[in-house]
Amino acid sequence: MVSTKFLKQLNDKYQIKFRNEKLLEEAFTHSSYANEHPNGVRDYEKLEFLGDAVLEIAVSDYLYRHYPELNEGELTRMRSNIVRTEGFSEFAIECGFQDEINLGNGEEKAGARHRKTLLEDVFEAFNGALYLDQGMKAVTHFLHLTVYPLIAKGEFDDSRDYKTDLQELLQKNGPVNIEYETISETQLPSHFVVELKINDQVKSHGEGHNKKAAEQQAAKKALQELE
């Protein structure tokens, strides 16, 4: 069963109240748990399959509407950066999914609850369940509160490698010392603040849901000033 505390959090933070809570429970049920409870709820694998497709079309729609200046290839690369699932584990933790996952005894002892790939699967399964329960409008609303703000901040747009461009610009006339230092890091939700120093002088700061994104943002700010 999904905890009452989590149901309240879904409602308070994301305005989501499932009509069919069995779907929500299924989204959080790993195959190891389902195998140990054959008369219980199904595992999340089919919902994960659906959620993957739902997320791809929701993200595609968002990019199409918000980035009219990008061509098909650029949109495709950007969408790939978003839906390749590596960041979904962080969204799953931020949304409180981690503690609700139903695991078999062996997987629980093996620490599967903290496994990124499992958390990514659960995030997709949740969106699949939400789609079945309330349709695409509810999924879009949820993504507006979780994923879309990071897209708008440019955290998934690595079509330009700002760190490399900055290095090439600065070092075209000789060696320059470039340092990226993490000065703040939180896990729930995942958030990094990075300080960029050029020849030991602070040049800019960057923020992101991971270290790479924060460094890219810091480099982008420095480049914009230099260019």
TrEMBL record:
It is found in: Cytoplasm. It catalyses: Endonucleolytic cleavage to 5'-phosphomonoester. Its main location: cytoplasm. It comes from Candidatus Lactobacillus pullistercoris. Mg(2+) binds at E48, D121, E124. Its cofactor is Mg(2+). Residues 204-214 have a biased composition (Basic and acidic residues). Its EC number is 3.1.26.3. Residues 161-227 form the DRBM domain. Keywords: Cytoplasm, Endonuclease, Hydrolase, Magnesium, Metal-binding, mRNA processing, Nuclease, RNA-binding, rRNA processing, rRNA-binding, tRNA processing. It comes from the Bacteria. The keyword Secreted does not apply. Residues 7-135 form the RNase III domain. This is Ribonuclease 3. Residues 204-227 are annotated as: Disordered. InterPro entries: dsRBD_dom, RNase_III, RNase_III_dom, RNase_III_sf. Pfam families: dsrm, Ribonucleas_3_3. Belongs to the ribonuclease III family. GO terms for cellular component: cytoplasm. The gene is rnc.
